[in-house]
């Protein structure tokens, strides 16, 4: 059985939205016949985690300090990978793009010396706009990318989520576009709320600028129709946008119709999702120069069978999908009356959740994505 080691920021001691993606990737690799491991971290240090096993690789002396997962974790991850290589043979190292520092080239050379292949995933491609969002982040990634250039010749395959790669190559190495997959079977199937006339919108995300949720808040404030409309915001603050949107809701005078729940998980999250009529996708990606995106959140809405609105073009979604309302990917005001009409139709379409789930199973599963990726590097 071949072995794959995933390297990403995976917290073992707390819940985070991205863990659903990582768990889906791990499960997909195992379903395809691979022995899948990942590096996880908690306040004690970094662990090698397999299917039912956990071994401490490296004590993290700074791991209990605030901000560890944005700073010292990156060199610690590379050190942990080197120690993992002494315990398991790695046929494929699957590395999520992240800040890379001095130990990274040495780590990748060791993987290659043992006959392993290296796959690097860009979860947002191109990444420049995101890396340049503010001054300190820009400096970190400029230095990081100088180290990354030493790694690039050793990468066997780049996987890109976002804009199409040119001629199947990136940095002179093979590349392929993939979509954000989802573990469909892990998510409950949505049931339309026919008994409640209130229109409930769900904005579920780690709140960041590209979500553009100020647009939906402004649309709610401008709405003059008769329907009762509420928006539930579920998720923590990614880059300061959540705090800005809270202030905007107060300025617009709509705090009685908007609830900011913070991050929710498990049963608390499922209760809010069950009450919702439509999900809200990313509405501000044009501000980062993006017209096409493959966001994980839309895939989760799709797998749940929750109709949604979105501004960005997504190649994995059918053009004429009745369960998706497309709004302009620009500063054009969103027409809340149109959103309400869409939600009211969704309430009456009892078959929509099953149609959406079927599309997700056939087109958006992580197993299908990884069958293509692993087939490229380990035929």
Brief overview:
With 379 residues, this protein is α/β, with parallel strands linked by helices.
Molecular structure report:
With 379 residues, the protein is α/β, with parallel strands linked by helices. The chain folds into 2 domains: 3-181 and 365-377, Rossmann fold, CATH 3.40.50.2000; 185-362, Glycogen Phosphorylase B (Rossmann fold, 3-Layer(aba) Sandwich). The protein has 12 helices and 15 strands. Strands 4-3-2-1-5-6-7-9-8 form a 9-stranded mixed β-sheet. Strands 12-11-10-13-14-15 form a 6-stranded parallel β-sheet. Helix 1 crosses helix 12 and helix 6 packs parallel to helix 7 (241-252). The longest helix has 17 residues, at 135-151.
Q: Helix count, per DSSP?
A: 12
Global shape: globular
The largest pleated sheet is described as: 9 strands, mixed
CATH architecture of the largest domain: 3-Layer(aba) Sandwich
CATH class of the largest domain: Alpha Beta
What are the defining features of this structure?
Rossmann fold, six-stranded parallel beta sheet, 379 residues, 36% helix, globular, alpha/beta, single chain, 12 helices
Produce the secondary structure layout.
Layout: E1 3-7, H1 18-31, E2 35-41, E3 45-49, E4 54-59, H2 73-85, E5 92-96, H3 103-113, E6 117-125, H4 128-131, H5 135-151, E7 157-162, E8 169-170, E9 173-177, E10 199-204, H6 214-222, E11 229-234, H7 241-252, E12 258-262, H8 266-275, E13 278-280, H9 296-304, E14 308-310, E15 324-326, H10 336-348, H11 352-363, H12 366-377
Parallel strand pairs: 1-2, 1-5, 5-6, 6-7, 7-9, 10-11, 10-13, 11-12, 13-14, 14-15
Antiparallel strand pairs: 2-3, 3-4, 8-9
Helix pairs in contact: 1-12, 2-3, 3-5, 6-7, 9-11
């Amino acid at each position: 059985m071949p072995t794959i080691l995933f390297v990403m920021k995976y917290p073992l001691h707390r819940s985070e939205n991205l863990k659903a993606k990582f768990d889906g990737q791990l499960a997909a690799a195992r379903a395809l016949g691979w022995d899948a491991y990942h590096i996880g971290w908690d306040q004690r240090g970094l662990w090698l985690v397999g299917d039912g096993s956990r071994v401490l690789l490296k004590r993290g002396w700074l791991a209990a300090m605030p901000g560890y997962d944005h700073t010292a974790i990156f060199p610690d991850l590379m050190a942990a990978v080197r120690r993992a290589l002494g315990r398991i043979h790695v046929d494929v190292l699957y590395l999520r793009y992240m800040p890379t520092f001095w130990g990274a080239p040495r780590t990748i050379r060791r993987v290659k010396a043992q006959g392993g292949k290296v796959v690097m995933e860009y979860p947002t491609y191109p990444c420049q706009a995101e890396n340049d969002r503010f001054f300190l982040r820009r400096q970190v990634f400029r230095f990081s990318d100088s180290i990354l250039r030493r790694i690039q010749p050793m990468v066997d395959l780049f996987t890109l989520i976002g804009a199409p790669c040119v001629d199947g190559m990136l940095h002179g190495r093979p590349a392929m576009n993939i979509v954000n997959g989802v573990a469909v079977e892990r998510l409950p199937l949505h049931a339309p709320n026919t008994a409640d006339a209130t229109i409930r919108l769900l904005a579920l995300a780690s709140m960041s600028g590209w979500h553009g949720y100020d647009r939906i808040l402004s649309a709610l404030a401008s709405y003059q129709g008769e329907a009762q409309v509420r928006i539930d915001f579920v998720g923590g603050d990614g880059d300061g946008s959540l705090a800005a949107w809270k202030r905007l809701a107060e300025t617009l005078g709509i705090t009685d119709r908007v609830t900011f729940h913070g991050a929710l998980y498990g049963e608390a999250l499922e209760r809010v999702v069950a009450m919702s009529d439509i999900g809200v996708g990313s509405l501000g990606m044009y501000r980062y120069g993006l017209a096409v995106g493959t966001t994980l959140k839309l895939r989760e809405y799709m797998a749940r069978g929750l109709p949604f609105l979105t501004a960005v073009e997504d190649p994995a979604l059918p053009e004429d999908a009745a369960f998706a309302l497309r709004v302009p990917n620009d500063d054009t005001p969103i027409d809340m009356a149109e959103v309400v009409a869409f939600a009211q139709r969704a309430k009456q379409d009892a078959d929509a959740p099953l149609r959406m789930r079927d599309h997700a199973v056939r087109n958006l599963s992580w197993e299908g994505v990884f069958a293509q990726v692993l087939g490229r590097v380990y035929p």
